[in-house]
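Renewal narrative, Specific Aim 1. Our central claim is that a sequence can be written position by position from structural information alone. The example that follows is taken directly from our test logs and has not been curated for this report. It begins with the structure tokens describing the chain, in the order in which they were read.
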């Protein structure tokens, strides 16, 4: 018997509407759903889900460690024993040391952020060890303190206009469907755009479409944004009406940007002065416009001020809440699904006593992973236990060697996983988690105007459970008042404001607020503030941030040189003469995932380092050669991909390359992993704690006498 089931793919941050064909109980075909908001598009990762679900390495039963940690010996246990062990540990630690002795965490957004947040909050701890501080969180929080809400690019034209000028600022939106934005929407909106400005050290795939490329030196984006503000303000081409009525602190910002003349900024950023001026004029004059910021500007020791400068650029050009500009979406009738995580709060005193909470004052209620891991290594950390769902800090957090050493000093680690990742290998209890094809769920990412139904298509392998059920069953045992009899009830509860049950939602496929149902210029209505205004302390867009001022940070954006560079550490640069840039997403890999799927691995069997042909030639390196990349922290090897679309001094190392085929417990996690090169010692962004992952120093040389890793 053949049937077609509509669902939502979550093989990355997710969101593509899909149609899954099942024949005699087995999935035979997956394709994009043309009737969904993503219009039938999907990618290799989603298609390879067929291999993913049948992979022999799947975790199929709860297991507990038998023998020493990382010894690779496991004993099957029942769900009852596994859950009671985890909950028992939590209760024990709460009683002995307080809730802050537990960290509840996950990796990047995989559709269950809100459950992690709810479990963390209901347990009462302030601690989580996730990568949010080097991912999207600093953008969300700087947007929230500047505008009062989170601004997204209006790719949709629901207000009658598409963006005329778009800036792709360190983000490959054409491939990565990140944080609720989908490539299909971005690419469609480009058909309507007059200008695309690419702010990226590399001429990426979308450079063909761009009419201006600003090849910024890695880590100097704040200077570039301030230079553009200098031009816009001094030439008087800012939006005078918006600035006068809806912003706070313009004069102070105008004074600050005088320190950033195009000449000076050209020196800092390596972007020619004429191009800085051209970009500034284009964005200010060809409106409406939007700016898509990426992880590159966030994974920086100056992330807060960089993002603030970019937000000021949006505001002085009046590109806030207008059709075709930056908009805070009104959510669906179901409200903000992510509130499910926040509606419970840990006690204030627990937040206040959080590790490093006093040092990095913006991410209130979050601990700083590098600080926690350092304390764990030094044996003076209050965190004793970690419960984690997916994610792989051994690849994602800076200085992987130290990360592993720190995690090994935890007394107890429990992990919900699909595979025996290097983190699973050092855990105490591993719980088998279902794949999106094996569970009912609500897909929700930050873009807010839509949510998708994830519909169970096949049974999970062995005893694997939906992630929502795992959270609910742990939650029930530790803080029963905050959880549900069944996880099905939990799904219904999240849809209550839309007055539908999950079963109906399943049939609908998605909920979206689009077209005339969406709302723009909300500051001119009572939406945020009675009588109008933005939900900030001054009711204006804060060019001068009263929030940062109160917290003791610079209220105006400024530039700071990366911690390691030709200019900040010239001596080190003699030894390590190249700029080490890590990241640059590959369409078919998702961080450390999918190197274990033959369909994907065939597309790119080895990790890839991009090297300029001139630099490669100087080192006797040819396309495909294995190359050592060395930083003061260590060395890794990847294969050379000669790429001329960037400055010859920059090296772009693919992040999170994993070798699941290699023996445990380490699975060669240091051999090609970019974070074996990055630093966990700072400098850290003073407000958010983020680190430089895109602007460090390195040297390269050919791997002699070896063809493979
Ligand atoms: N296929 C795939 N999709 C993904 C992911 C994945 O791993 N694979 N990861 C997901 C996640 S968690 C995230 S956060 C997003 C990230 O998505 P992006 O933010 O797009 O991340 P990258 O592709 O790593 O980097 C984007 C661009 O920034 C440029 N860049 C590097 N350094 C700098 C700099 O200093 N300044 C500027 N202006 N640009 C710079 C790089 O050359 C690159 O082209 O993608 C998500 N989507
Ligand atoms: N140097 C450098 N470091 C970086 C970055 C960079 O560009 N450069 N990017 C940073 C960014 S933006 C991010 S977000 C992080 C990514 O950080 P993480 O999210 O920690 O990254 P992954 O390595 O992809 O985690 C993958 C693991 O999650 C498991 N998993 C996947 N889906 C599920 C699921 O549905 N349920 C469960 N239970 N498990 C699942 C997989 O099996 C796999 O073992 O890395 C950060 N680190
Ligand atoms: S882009 Fe992400 S959601 Fe879409 S098909 Fe690919 S993996 Fe799935
Ligand atoms: Mo991320």
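The sequence written for that structure reads:
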């Amino acid at each position: 018997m053949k049937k077609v089931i509509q669902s939502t793919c979550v093989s990355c941050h997710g969101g593509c509407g899909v149609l899954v064909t099942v024949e005699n109980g087995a999935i035979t075909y997956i394709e994009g759903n043309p009737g969904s908001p993503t219009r039938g598009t999907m990618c290799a990762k989603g298609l390879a889900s067929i291999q993913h679900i049948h992979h022999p390495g799947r975790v199929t039963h709860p297991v507990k460690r038998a023998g020493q940690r990382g010894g690779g010996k496991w004993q099957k246990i029942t769900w009852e024993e596994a859950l009671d062990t985890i909950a028992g540990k939590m209760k024990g630690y709460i009683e002995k040391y307080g809730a802050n002795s537990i960290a509840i965490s996950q990796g990047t957004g995989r559709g269950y952020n809100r459950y992690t947040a709810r479990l963390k909050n209901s347990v009462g701890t302030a601690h989580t060890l996730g990568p949010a501080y080097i991912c999207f969180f600093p953008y969300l929080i700087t947007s929230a303190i500047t505008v009062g809400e989170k601004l997204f690019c209006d790719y949709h034209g629901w207000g009658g206009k598409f963006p005329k000028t778009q800036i792709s600022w360190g983000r490959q939106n054409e491939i990565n469907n990140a944080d609720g934005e989908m490539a299909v929407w971005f690419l469609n909106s480009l058909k309507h755009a007059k200008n695309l400005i690419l702010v990226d050290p590399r001429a990426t795939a979308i450079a063909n479409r761009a009419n201006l490329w600003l090849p910024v030196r890695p880590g100097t984006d704040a200077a570039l944004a301030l230079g553009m503000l200098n031009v816009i303000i001094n030439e008087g081409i800012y939006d005078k009406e918006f600035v006068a009525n809806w912003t706070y602190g313009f004069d102070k910002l105008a004074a600050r940007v005088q320190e950033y003349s195009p000449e000076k900024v050209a020196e800092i950023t390596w972007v020619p002065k004429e191009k800085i001026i051209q970009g500034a004029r284009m964005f200010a004059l060809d409106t409406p416009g939007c700016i898509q910021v990426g992880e590159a500007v966030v994974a920086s020791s100056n992330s807060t001020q960089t993002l603030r400068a970019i937000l000021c650029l949006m505001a002085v050009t009046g590109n806030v809440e207008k059709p075709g500009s930056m908009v805070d979406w009104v959510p669906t009738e179901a409200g903000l699904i992510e509130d499910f995580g926040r509606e419970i709060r840990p006690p204030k005193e627990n937040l206040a006593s959080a590790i490093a909470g006093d040092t990095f004052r913006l991410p209130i209620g979050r601990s700083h992973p590098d600080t926690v891991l350092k304390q764990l290594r030094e044996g003076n950390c209050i965190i004793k236990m970690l419960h984690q769902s997916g994610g792989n800090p051994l690849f994602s957090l800076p200085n992987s060697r130290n990360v592993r050493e720190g995690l090994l000093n935890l007394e107890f680690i429990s992990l919900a996983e699909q595979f025996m990742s290097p983190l699973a290998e050092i855990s105490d209890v591993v719980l088998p988690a279902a794949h999106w094809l094996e569970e009912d769920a609500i897909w929700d990412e930050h873009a807010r105007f839509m949510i998708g139904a994830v519909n169970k298509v096949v049974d999970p392998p062995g005893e694997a459970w939906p992630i929502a059920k795992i959270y609910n069953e742990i939650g029930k045992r530790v803080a029963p008042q905050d959880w549900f009899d069944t996880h099905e009830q939990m799904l219904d509860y999240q849809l209550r404001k839309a007055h539908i049950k999950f079963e109906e939602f399943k049939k609908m496929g998605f909920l979206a607020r689009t077209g005339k149902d969406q709302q723009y210029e909300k500051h001119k209505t009572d939406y945020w503030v009675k009588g109008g205004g933005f939900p900030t302390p001054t009711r204006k867009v804060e060019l001068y941030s009263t929030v940062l001022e109160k917290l003791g940070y610079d209220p105006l954006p400024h530039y700071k040189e990366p911690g390691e560079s030709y200019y900040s550490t010239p001596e080190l640069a003699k030894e390590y003469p190249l700029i080490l840039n890590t990241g640059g997403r590959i369409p078919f890999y998702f961080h450390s995932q999918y190197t274990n799927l033959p369909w994907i691995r065939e597309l790119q069997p080895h990790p890839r380092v991009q090297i300029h042909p001139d630099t490669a030639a100087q080192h006797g390196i040819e396309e495909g050669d294995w190359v050592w990349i060395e930083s003061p922290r260590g060395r890794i090897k990847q294969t050379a991909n000669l790429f001329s679309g960037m400055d010859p001094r920059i090296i772009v190392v693919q992040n999170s390359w994993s070798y699941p085929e290699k023996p445990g417990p380490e699975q060669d996690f240091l051999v090609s992993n970019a974070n074996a090169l990055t630093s966990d010692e700072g400098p850290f962004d003073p407000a958010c704690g983020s680190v430089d992952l895109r602007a460090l120093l390195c040297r390269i040389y050919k791997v002699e006498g070896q063809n493979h890793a």
